[in-house]
Design a protein that fits this description.
The protein is an alpha+beta fold. The protein has one domain (2-80). The chain has three helices and four strands; from the N terminus they run E-E-H-E-H-H-E.
Length: 82
């Protein structure tokens, strides 16, 4: 499943926080939706449809990429559904 990882815009409840949108069946669909957003975002593949599991996988992926920033990696992720 494809997910969109985005930062919350200024003036919203989740400003500056990470939002996880999805899941989407195709990368094309996720890319289309990401293009509609007014914030920086990227499309990633996570092998799950479950939002809480996707959130845990995203956090683990962040720690793998930069173990020194584990506290930041485990910040709360907001879930937005398509």
């Amino acid at each position: 499943m494809y997910w969109i990882v985005a930062k919350g815009r200024e003036g919203t409840k989740i400003r500056g926080k990470t939002a996880l949108l999805g899941p989407f069946n195709t990368e094309f669909t996720a890319d289309e939706k990401a293009d509609e957003l007014e914030t920086d975002s990227k499309v990633i593949y996570l092998p799950t449809r479950d939002p809480s599991r996707a959130s845990r996988m995203l956090k683990a992926k962040r720690v793998e990429q930069n173990p020194k920033l584990w506290e930041e990696a485990y910040e709360r992720v907001s879930h937005k559904y398509k």
